Amino acid sequence: MLEGSRRCAIPCQPIPSDGLVNAVEGTLAEFLSSQIATFDALDPALGRFARTSRDLVLAGGKRLRPTFAYWGWRGAIGTREPIDPVLPALAALELMHTFALVHDDMMDGSATRRGRPTAHRLFAAQHHRGEGLGDPDHFGSTAAILVGDLCLVWADQLLAQAALTTATLFAVRACYDRMRVEAVAGQYLDVLGETQPGEWSLDRALVVARHKTASYTVQRPLQFGLALAGPMRSPKTAINDAYHEYGLAIGEAFQLCDDLLGVYGDPDVTGKPAGDDLRTGKPTALLMLAHQLATPAQRAELTRGPERTPSRTRARTPARTPAGAVNPADGSGGPKPPASSSPLLDGGRAPASCHLTEQQIARQKELIAETGAVARVEAMIRRRVDHAVAAIRDAPIHDDARAALTELAITATHRPA
Q1: How far is CA 315 from each of CA 196, 246, 310, 312, 331, rounded to the nearest angstrom?
Q2: Helices 358-371 + 296-303 axis angle, to 10
């Protein structure tokens, strides 16, 4: 997506070495070991439940959230302070992330994550092997909800182990709580978008990206790291402003990259099935742009399909126009959400939600590329990377953090998975 010349134009500094990731992994493993021991003492079945939860947490991943938080902290505090006092707080972000992933996979009905079965599939398989009574899928979904809830509680417990002053901990908690609320808000809008595709727009798709992804992946982790640095003099406001601009831009670009991977990614690399967003009709920015840029003939082909069925079952489904717009049963469309004022946005509305066959998915990929939507999304990513790099260029942060964040701006938005 980003040209080789573009990569060379930005000074390169190795992003955090395996040392940081290993330290986070070690902190998580030690904490989870103690939690498993507690569950084992209560009941063997609870011990197995806790072990499955641990395996989901430690199943790999990019560990981007603690990485951004680390550099947010280093950018403010410098290189001399030891990392040990803040490691529990950094690792807690991965427990929160697992909570979000487990619930998101269940809501989307995803079969795999990082190349492995998702939580609800794992527990459904356990139920089937144990020949338990009832529906294995229902048991799997129920257990997955509890895993997500447990990880969120564990995140609170691990955060409390950070060696921080009371005032600093309160500031960190305020940022952490805001991050959690925004992630839930973004997830709700993401789910809502699948049920009201005709009411969606590119502006709104990016609002979802801003809350579901940008907030808790980049922007708030950076500010979380800044809060970990404790009280500072006047530069703190300037650093916070720079982190806000950088985090919003890279967080949106990260989600735009995800939109592309959700359609064109290699399942062997992403660890997730290809074309899931097309199967469910998720109104991503990529699909919004495809419908906006399509010719009438392309738009008609993108919208219709002989084997399409509603992506989510509801007791009462409102009628749709041929363009996919919802006609509420009571005749009231309700107020439309306000358009975003971001200068980086474009217009466009969504197609109807649907499932597609493999052959149709292949054709949809061709059509989306033909509209120019892929090239437009790549351009949106480049603009955001440029904006982010400019935001930290003169910010009053330490040079090693500036170099690492500059490199992360590229690696986080130009990736195969």
Answers
A1: 15, 43, 12, 10, 18
A2: 150
**Cα-based angle 102, 189, 414 (whole degrees, multiple of 5):** 65
DSSP tally for the chain: helices H, then strands E: 18, 4
> Which residues have a Cβ under 8 Å from the Cβ of 175 and sit 6 or more positions away?
220, 223, 224, 227
Q: Are strands 112-113 and 326-327 parallel, antiparallel or unpaired?
A: unpaired
Q: What is the pLDDT of residue 271?
A: 79
Categorise residue 61: left if φ over 0, alpha if ψ from -120 to 50, beta otherwise: left
The model carries a pTM of: 0.83
323, amino acid identity: A
Count CB neighbours of 301 within 10 A.
16
Question: What local confidence, expressed as pLDDT, does residue 234 receive?
Answer: 64
Amino acid occupying residue 256: L
Phi/psi of residue 60, each to 5°? 95, -155
Tokens of 370: 């033909």
Residue recorded with tokens 């300037």: 238
Q: Are 116 and 104 in contact (CB under 8 A)?
A: no
**CA distance linking residue 65 with residue 402, whole number of Å:** 17
User: In terms of Cα–Cα distance, which of 232, 249, 168 is closest to 397?
Assistant: 232
Closest CA to 394 of 383, 406, 381, 409: 406
State how far the Cα of 30 lies from the Cα of 27, in Å rounded to an integer: 5
d(C-alpha 210, C-alpha 244), whole Å: 12
Which tens digit of pLDDT belongs to each residue from 47-59? 999 999 999 999 9
- Cα(120)–Cα(141) distance, rounded to whole angstroms? 5
pLDDT digits (tens, 9 = 90+) for 174-196: 999 999 999 999 999 988 988 88
Q: Which domains does the chain have, with CATH numbers?
A: 4-324+344-411 (1.10.600.10)
Residue 226: C-alpha distances to residues 16, 132, 185, 250, 253 (Å):
17, 49, 23, 17, 22
Q: DSSP letter string over 85-136?
A: GGHHHHHHHHHHHHHHHHHHHHHHT-SEETTEE-HHHHHHHHHHHTT-SS-H
Q: Are 3 and 414 in contact (CB under 8 A)?
A: no
For residues 67 and 328, give the distance between their C-alpha atoms in angstroms, rounded to a whole number: 45
